[in-house]
Amino acid sequence: MRNFILSAQKTKVDNMTRMLLMLFLATVLMAFSLNLNADPADTDQEADKTGPDTGQVAADDLPGTAALEEMEEAEEVNTNDPTAAAISVSAGWEFYNWYEDEIAPGQTRPTGNDNSFNSRFVIPMAKGTWGSPWPIINRFSFANLEAPGGTSASGNAEFITLFIPWTWATGKVGLGPAINLPADEKQFGADVWRYGFAGVALENSLEGRLMWGVLVRQVWGKTDPNSNSTIASPFALQPIVVYQLNDGWYISNGESPIAYNWQEKEWLVPLGFRLGKTIKDRRGGIWNAYAEYRTNVVYKDWPGAAASDIIRISASYTFAR
Questions:
Q1: Is the confidence at residue 244, as pLDDT, over 80?
Q2: Which class is domain 2-318?
């Protein structure tokens, strides 16, 4: 009984420590991001030409209505850009159905959780922050998962920092570290810290209507908190395809990362479709709401749970730059 109480107390302390760490990091990053869109040297040099930094070009530089529409379309694409240089927050819900096929003689495939609530915070930093020669994008992702029976807990929170060393007129490439925080319990994710890297490459085509690229993540961690054995978690390769329609509407492949299990040498490949709409408010911020459906089309040899149906409903807000 005493060991059980001590274990429960330790779990509470670990959860509190984890939350305090995340709050501290978010506060520090938010403080440094207040001037994220203003590079003092660049602003001084351009002041005579463009005036105050309002995010708009000088009237003399506008070729006409067509150019303005292209700028608006580019802004709408940026709300779906994981490297967009603007503070954003999002929240969404996912609901799951699972395949229950046989993965070995007499062994049924395990199922996952019923649903999850996801939230994400993106905090960019200007070039020069913390002495960095490149812009920085910080992304926090959190999830609260609900298991069959109604029990719920936090899953693996993820923190990614992307440095953007290469940019060109229509695209960019970013690299940086990735950290996965432990889940509250094993049934909701890995209960160990995991560390690795993330990378992104993006390109805009068709006069800004099409954004395409890839986001990759790989982390390593112990198999157990009391073990010294470190293994690679499944590699995640997330294709990004977003096509702008009219009046702020867009279609996308959604958040559909392809996974590769290094130990079993097997793939889990999803297929998704997202329909969304962006709306600008009076302050210049952008709302982005969407509905998404995904299913796994390659899963037969995957050793773990595989979702047959995933429905996601989400909304985000990107603050004016």
A1: yes
A2: mainly beta
